[in-house]
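Holo model, INI. Inputs:
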Amino acid sequence: MTSSDETVLDPTAHGEFRSRVGVYLDGPHDGTGMRIGIACGRFNGGISTRLLTHCLDALQEAGVASEDIAVAWAPGAFELPLLARAFALSPERYDAVITLGAVIRGDTGHYEVVAGECARGVQDVQLSTGVPVVFGVLTTNTVEQALERSRNDATNKGRESAETAIAMAHLLSHAPFAS
Ligand code: INI
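Output:
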C-alpha cells in the first residue's frame, strides 16, 4: 500500500468544498439505527475471526445495536457473494452487508479464481441490489500478510470494512439518493 501526506484526504478540505456546492456528503461515522449483515468465510477461519472481532468492535463503537447485526458463515470466499445477496434481498432490510474472509495464494492453485470471483460477485451484488456490500476479504500472498492485515489496530480490514459499510449506508440514505 502506498500513502503519503499528499495522498491522504485532509478533513479540512470538506469545509471549502461544502461552501461551493448545493449537496455535499462526506459520509460521517454514525451507525445509530442501522442494520448490518455480515457474511464470513470458514476457510482460513482464524483470519475471519480476527476480522470479525474488529468489525463488531467498530460497528458497536459507531452506535450499531447488537440486535441489528446478523452474522452468517459460508464455507469459503467463493460462496460469500451468494450469502451477501441473500442478506441484501432479505425482508429484514439490511442497510449494508459486509463480507469477511481470506484468500491466501499459498493455500491454493486456484487463488486467482477464488479471489477474483469473490470480488466480482460482491460488486455484482451491490450493483444489482443497490445495497452496499463491502469487500472485506483479504487476498494475500502469504499467511503472514493475512495476519498483518487482521492485526489488533486501526488498519484491521474488519474495522475498515465496518467503517465503509456505515459510510455507504449513510450516503445512500440521503438526498439525492433517497428521500
Ligand atoms: N476459500 C477461501 O476463503 N480462501 C482460500 O484461500 C481458499 N483456497 O485457498 O482454496 C478457499 N477455497 C474454498 C472456496 O472458497 C470454496 O469454498 C470451495 O471452492 C467450494 O465452492
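The helical segments are 13-18, 45-61, 80-89, 111-129, 143-148, 157-172. Strands lie at 36-41, 69-74, 96-104, 133-140.
Archived with the compound record.
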